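Troubleshooting entry. The earlier prediction with cytidine-5'-monophosphate gave an output that would not parse, so I re-checked the input for stray whitespace and re-submitted. Clean input:
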Amino acid sequence: MLIKSVFKAIAPAVKMQPKVVFVLGGPGAGKGTQCQRIVETFGYVHLSAGDLLREERSQPNSQFGELIDNYIKEGKIVPVEITCSLLDNAMKASGKDKFLIDGFPRNQNNLEGWNSTVAKRVQLQFILFFDCPLEICLERCLQRGAGGSGRSDDNPDSLKKRFNTYLNETRPIIEYYEKSDLVKRIDATRPVEEVFEDVKSIFQGLNCIGGGDQ
Ligand code: ADP
Ligand code: C5P
Ligand code: MG
């Protein structure tokens, strides 16, 4: 009886928490490409940590522009205070309640910064992990660069550093979440539409078709 009434009291608060899916995978694994499709089909808001950092870097008055520029070229992970506040601001500004947070948390510092700030205000649904060998990632990033991405880090020198960061810092974060059974792994080596078929079954499994409530 008591448990029932306590549950009744806290249920609305739990339900109102924004939902978050972390999207991880190597550079060029196809995170952004698949997120765009998830947005169209399931109504999530896509927030790419990399995109937010590039946007911040391009602000004429940004106090972090130069720092971000250096970190990106070196394939290093920007201190979490900067990235987390960009994500938090973007979540609040959207006025929405379902987010794909792409390219985050990318290292232990990201994870700890998130856990001590935003984590308590959101419901982490799962980690969508686009698993792709680095040889394929390399090919895709070089093609993206050749196709005019304009990114300062789609070149062999930066990519080598980004892959090292991915292996040494990001993979341990994925392994950490695997222990809590939160990781949904997708084989990202296949063509975009085939990859999306697997992505769709995961989101349909949550019963969130068309972006409705879950
Ligand atoms: P990420 O956000 O993980 O760095 P992107 O979504 O930007 O990756 O994709 C990197 C490049 O690879 C882009 O040029 C994109 O068009 C291409 N790409 C994405 N997914 C696939 C795929 N499944 N097969 C082939 N090329 C892909
Ligand atoms: O995800 P994306 O490939 O766009 O990230 C580009 C770069 O942005 C990373 O290599 C890194 O330098 C920076 N970044 C970061 N922290 C994150 C995400 C991206 O420092 N959480
Ligand atoms: Mg991306």
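This one parsed fine. The CA atoms of residues 31 and 143 lie 16 Å apart.
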